[in-house]
Amino acid sequence: xxxxxxxxxxxxxxxxxxxxxxxxxxxxxxxxxxxxxxxxxxxxxxxxxxxxxxxxxxxxxxxxxxxxxxxxxxxxxxxxxxxxxxxxxxxxxxxxxxxxxxxxxxxxxxxxxxxxxxxxxxxxxxxxxxxxxxxxxxxxxxxxxxxxxxxxxxxxxxxxxxxxxxxxxxxxxxxxxxxxxxxxxxxxxxxxxxxxxxxxxxxxxxxxxxxxxxxxxxxxxxxxxxxxxxxxxxxxxxxxxxxxxxxxxxxxxxxxxxxxxxxxxxxxxxxxxxxxxxxxx
Length: 281
Description:
By secondary structure, this protein is an alpha/beta fold. It has helices at 36-39, 50-53, 55-61, 66-75, 95-106, 141-147, 150-172, 196-207, 222-229, 259-270; strands at 8-10, 86-90, 110-112, 115-120, 123-132, 136-139, 184-188, 212-219, 234-239. It has a six-stranded parallel beta sheet, sandwiched between helices. A three-stranded antiparallel beta sheet has the order 4-5-6. The model is unreliable at 14-48 (pLDDT under 50).
């Protein structure tokens, strides 16, 4: 197989002020930006979130919610609007509301690409890797060796494989997945901190025969963009902050998406006219 051509990385230019400050949860009292009018009644030794301290900056930088993020992302993906060979796959759970808006605005079919994070013991928010449909796995070996012993890692892998199969059945509710062979597949998540989940999704899409894979996220760390660029044919990212701590920092409303919402959005999308066949069972 010939070498894959260099990926397209699409990150729009943003105002200089939009990456001036870090997205840390707190600004410390010694920070020179914390003038008396900003500190207000909290006093010099109390901490204040960057959103509270710089509301105008926050409003410029972030997304209202996942629907807003999807609209922004769709504007960057107009080259795929109504293309007969294109399909949108959302990464549950949080990526599905974003993907739903993208698919609606681009008038493209929507399905899920189920991915499960491999969690560090005692730190459920920290992923040491990810798995995806088709037996695909991505592992940060340095992080995994530091935080997990082999027994813990095998147990987590077994548990997440069971969860993956359960959620495949739950989200589709008996429907077959849409066929992605020889198609341009737009993989959508609500953000990428390490990029492990999206990388697993990219590899799964290729295994299932995608002709072109586009990784699309509203916000990502620079490291994640670098990682995704090594695997996707195209990376579309609306916002790549200079300082990145978590995806949640870039949403005003980042409430957890539950399984019922994912199921409802997929069912709603299937109610639209489809120009794509189902995969063979």
